[in-house]
Amino acid sequence: MATTKLDVTQEIKLDHDNVRDLWSRFQAATAREEKANIANTLIREMAIHGDAEEISIYNDYSKLGLPGTAEHNKEEHAEIKKLVYEADSASTKSPDYHEVLREAVLAFITHATEEETDQFPIILAKLTPDENDRLARDFLRARKMVPTRPHPAAPQTGGVAQKAAGALGSVHDKVVETLGGREFVELKFQHPENF
């Protein structure tokens, strides 16, 4: 049975596109509850995405001809995490909530565009189809292991410390989301379920 080869850049871009779509939906929404549910989903998706990249693909960046780029991306992620944390901590009923969330989303989208434009072509030129598939699957597995809310003080090493903190954070986040009654909206774009 042949398995379809995955493309890590497409899986990462799928996350980027979900954030772009959610932001458009947030801006178009008029009901407070709908806006809150979209905001919860935006925060979750931005948090998952950043940590998943850090513990998966960024570990291969130096081998892919991108020396220093993982560190640069992690610095940008640290700033994005702070902004996403501020949005996560703010009340969606606050009059300035839209601006707080907008700042986080625009920082994420700016970073995403840089990855897509400057880094993806280099990555794709260096990877064999098997390596690309392996990295895509690593990224998708990482998405299931990381926290669903921002933790800007957590390690960003991409190694064991970040994975361990992520596992604990993930459990904590599930409890907070459940007890807090957070609701989410469906994502427009979906990763493969069985990989």
From TrEMBL:
The segment(s) forming the Hemerythrin-like domain are 9-122
Q: Please provide an example of a Pfam family that matches this protein in its UniProt record.
A: Hemerythrin
Q: Which InterPro entries match?
A: Hemerythrin-like (IPR012312)
The name on file for this protein is: Hemerythrin-like domain-containing protein
